[in-house]
Specification:
The chain is of the alpha/beta class and 396 residues long. Helices cover 36% and strands 12% of the residues. It has one domain: Alkaline Phosphatase, subunit A. It is built from 14 helices and twelve strands. The strands form two sheets. Strands 1, 5, 6, 7, 8, 9, 10, 11 and 12 form a nine-stranded mixed beta sheet that branches. β3 and β4 form a beta hairpin. This is DUF1501 domain-containing protein.
């Protein structure tokens, strides 16, 4: 079996660039110091329209700017006298009523970028609009506080920049069993068997093979933990729900993972927004409902915080295709059972005082959300990880 076969057949090998390196720097760091609290991050990729998610149903400006795509007042799930949910988000209203949801409005940053790729990089690195950083904010958390390559797992086939550190990366997998089987590929095993061959070292392949050793070890550990857990909770039949189902199962297994990362795409609604966003929000809400129920049944909800964001919101004014164009500030959801400020954390920004592009002005820097989570939930030094000091919020 030649190398070409190995690269084609082994998804693990072809993904080596995002599998954690075999780093010994934190071998003496106590796993117990990481604590038991877990963070689940969900990205609504494409730029979810916040104004049709959390709807200002008593605001005439909202309806004037969106004559064909505004959500009718009669369809809004009212939360306050001014704001309500899209009717696809009924499961989130249940969490809201139970005091297990905080909604933070107008989250963004100065000089917002409206490119999907660049805006995603900014959110995932925790950088400013004019900074270009090669490591993610979770990756830097792993560099400073991680001691195992699986302390952060993305439930996907590839690893986001958010989980890439300078020394240590998180690991990506959609299915722990498949990851394990791939790591047992005969060619993969044969390569590892010859790792100590001095000839390989002469060709500077040592790092690669150490990475492969780490990958095999991580795959085995994740699989062994995953198969010890089970659940009776029924999930919707979609890819996003499967991500959350895998996440819940890993959490209940007792795996030493602090951060899980999942995503739901399709929110770039330039045309025909009403139907597509309604469908996607339902997928999100129904899957979250199953996930939270599962965590509660497993007794892990109290120690799990769920953070949902999108790389930007949408323009206040609808476009000619009955959609919305790229915007700036939007809302962010925090779900958990230890929230200090359930409900609305702050007021919606004015729809009559927009920025020069016709977008909502941000009032909460997204890095303040990160700083709060790092400091108050993960109990680590946020300043060093975020390369600066940001105001702490009072939602946890």
């Amino acid at each position: 079996m030649d190398r070409r076969h190995f690269l084609k057949q082994s998804s693990l090998a072809s993904s080596l660039f995002f599998v954690p390196s075999f780093i010994k720097a934190f071998e003496n760091f106590s796993a117990s110091s990481l604590g038991y609290k877990r963070l689940v991050i969900i990205q609504l990729s494409g730029g979810n329209d916040g104004l049709n998610t959390v709807i200002p149903f008593n605001n005439d400006t909202y309806y004037r700017n969106r004559p064909k795509i505004a959500i009718p007042k009669t369809d809004v799930l009212r939360l306050t006298d001014e704001l309500g949910f899209h009717n696809s988000l009924l499961p989130l209203k249940t969490l809201y009523d139970a005091g297990q949801l905080t909604i933070i409005n107008n989250v963004g940053y100065p000089n917002p970028n409206r490119s999907h790729f660049r805006a995603t990089d900014i959110w995932q690195t925790g950088s400013g609009a004019h900074q270009y950083i090669q490591t993610g904010w979770i990756g830097r958390y792993l560099d400073a506080y991680g001691n195992k390559p699986y302390n952060a797992i993305e439930i996907d086939d590839s690893l986001s920049l958010a989980l890439k550190g300078k020394q240590t990366h998180g690991i990506a997998t959609t299915n722990p069993e498949v990851l394990f089987r791939t790591s047992q590929d005969p060619y993969f095993k044969n390569v590892l068997k010859h790792y100590k061959d001095e000839h390989l070292s002469e060709h500077n392949l040592g790092y690669l093979y150490k990475t492969m050793i780490s990958a095999e070890s991580s795959a085995t550990y994740i699989f062994e933990k995953h198969k010890t857990a089970s659940s009776t909770q029924e999930y919707p039949k979609n890819t996003f729900a499967n991500q959350l189902k895998t996440t819940s199962r890993l959490i209940s297994s007792g795996i030493e993972t602090k951060v899980f990362y999942a995503s739901l795409g399709g929110f770039d609604t330039h045309a025909g927004q009403l139907n597509s966003q309604s469908r996607l929000l339902k997928i999100y809400a129904d899957s979250i409902q199953a996930f939270v129920k599962d965590l509660k049944q497993q007794g892990t909800f109290n120690d799990t915080l769920i953070l949902t964001f999108s790389e930007f919101g949408r323009r206040v004014k609808q476009n000619a295709a009955n959609g919305t164009d790229h915007g700036a500030a939007s809302n962010l959801f925090v779900i958990g059972n230890q929230l200090k400020t359930p409900g609305f954390y702050n007021e919606l920004a004015s729809l009559s005082d927009l920025d020069s592009n016709g977008d909502l002005k941000y009032t909460v820097d997204f890095r303040s959300v990160y700083a709060t989570v790092l400091d108050k939930w993960l109990a680590v030094e946020d300043d060093a990880i975020l390369n600066g000091s940001f105001q702490k919020l009072n939602f946890i």
